[in-house]
Amino acid sequence: MGASQTRAEHQYQDLADKTGFSFEQIKNLYQRFQQLSGNEETISRANLDSIPALANNPIRKQIIGAFFDKRNQHQDEVGSCDQIGFEQFLMVMSHFRPPNLRTTDEEKEAMRKEKLRFLFNMHDSDNDGTITLAEYRKVVEELMSKSGEIGQETAKAIADAAMLEVASINVPNMGPEEFYEGITFEHFEEILKGLEMESRMHIRFLDVDTSTMRCGKSQS
């Protein structure tokens, strides 16, 4: 029993070092992982797709896909998985952990960049490092047309106009015959410059309020 506990502590320490979560937070997230997976060792897209709180979310597909995107699991590769284990799940969840009072400015900047990269990856569905007009249209159409208040063609026109505006900002001297390939991560950072991201990304649909998931002990 002592050896088993020691192995568990080593495993938790490794996960804590990788994610910044405390042992208590890792334990709580493991319990939620077990609930979602039905006590299995991995979670599938179907497990997340069955979460009631996600049912009416217009970008449900992108949110679920983000968990299975290898780029969001701190892996040095691209592509997606059909199943993820607890460590991969925890790596994705670490993107939603806000800073605390002890977080340095340098660490805050790194966290902000990581969160922006996560959001960028959600839009860059083909993993080519650029959010194309087609990808941007898809997200805007899903966000706007599913509300029932606006048609798909209108949503498409709004997406096209927005992308044209982005192009004029990022490539101000672009000629009339030039084609804007899409939003790079550097462009994406510039677009969202000044927006406070460090503590605004939450993931409450998993019944986990990440605004309380700070380093050290969980907040009551």
Can you characterise this structure?
- Its main location: other.
- Belongs to the calcineurin regulatory subunit family. CHP subfamily.
- Pfam families: EF-hand_6 (PF13405).
- Keywords: Calcium, Cell membrane, Cell projection, Cytoplasm, Differentiation, Lipoprotein, Membrane, Metal-binding, Myristate, Nucleus, Protein kinase inhibitor.
- It is a lipid-anchor.
- With 220 residues, the protein is mostly helical.
- It has a domain at 2-101 and 201-212: Recoverin, domain 1 (Orthogonal Bundle), CATH 1.10.238.10.
- The protein has helices spanning 2-19, 23-37, 45-49, 60-67, 86-93, 105-123, 133-145, 152-170, 185-191, and strands at residues 43-44, 83-84, 130-131, 183-184.
- The strands form 2 sheets. The protein has a two-stranded antiparallel ribbon. It has a two-stranded antiparallel sheet with strand order 3-4.
- Residues 214-220 have low confidence and may be disordered.
